Amino acid sequence: MKKNIIFVGLDVHKETIDVALADAARTKDVRFYGTIGGDLESLHKVVRKLQSTGADLRFVYESGPCGYDIYRSLTKHGFDCTVVAPSMIPRKTGDRIKNDRRDALNLARLHRAGELTAVYVPTEEDEAMRDLSRAREDAVKALRVARQVLLAFLLRHGYRYSGKSHWTKAHKNWIADIKMPHRAQQITLHEYGHAAQEQLERVERLTLQIQELLPQWSQAPVVTALQTLRGVSLIVAVTTVAELGDLTRFKSAKQLMAYLGLVPSEHSSGGTIRRGGITKTGNGHVRRALTEAAHAYRHPARESRVLLARLEGLPPEVRQISWKAQVRLCGRFRKLFGYGKNKKTVVIAIARELSAFMWAIANAITPETAE
Length: 371
Description:
With 371 residues, the protein is of the alpha/beta class. The protein folds into three domains: 5-113, Ribonuclease H-like superfamily/Ribonuclease H (Nucleotidyltransferase, domain 5), CATH 3.30.420.10; 124-216, no CATH class; 220-370, no CATH class. The protein is built from 14 helices and seven strands. It has helices at residues 40-51, 69-76, 100-113, 124-156, 169-176, 183-213, 220-226, 234-244, 253-259, 284-294, 305-311, 316-338, 343-364, 367-370; strands at 5-12, 16-23, 31-37, 56-62, 80-84, 264-266, 275-278. The strands form two sheets. The chain has a five-stranded mixed beta sheet. A two-stranded antiparallel ribbon has the order 6-7. Helix 2 (69-76) links the parallel strand 4 and strand 5. The longest helix has 33 residues, at 124-156. Mean pLDDT is 92; it is low at 367-371.
């Protein structure tokens, strides 16, 4: 006898979960089950009650600040669970009423209709490395803010550095030699300096932790191979893999480009074709990392000593892709810039193609070649 299928929509919040049910038979209306506590024990209590009916349960909820604990707990117990992106859920244009109950009902209804697109759920190991790389990114932002506050304080009191670059040894010595007219201002200067130094040390600590934990990560061979690309440092490679997971899950390089939001937006109708800036959908962490890496291709193609060291011991396929990427992207950067294109536009174009070469390298690193 065929089991009845029940689609369970979960509107998840910090303290509560709203539950809605939709039977596979579309003749039956979607019904609201109730509001339960936001902990896993409360959820599994409901699951046991629904499971006692003998139905096949299929869960769905939106990705959000509560993470993937519900997904992992349900799949661990053998249930089908889907996590969807809020931005990809179909909405009625004229629907002006939104609440938790309606959200749960809508999720159950759309899941039954097959109109929801699942997001990629990272493994626990990948998520742990992603948390570490994001912690470093947050530390870099805090360092930038601390330095900006210090420079703004000095500028406000008429101190302007005449050198070419800030935060070099000469610049730090210049700051250390400054004597403010008032004791309170001197204390303020030292406190701002200490804050900037603390954030710098924090960035260095997190970078060291990434280096130490990388060999234990299952994605380490891919991270190592990606660093053969010019401009792709350890941090760029780790950020890309930690945020995206297995790059081979994308069917094509174009799909990866679109996922990163590096493709042009378009609003065309009839014979009129209008393309605008990049869509900026998908993962912004990787998009920022790739745009920074793209600046390295403004120079002529060459294999430096650092790059040659990274190429040692890697398969010939990876070496070929790395050199092919350099020749193409360096030439393309020079060509586009020569056409008078805006530098930001050129960098985005290079970042888009760089992601394609990353995808090619990830596909070249198989379990056999990684050993």
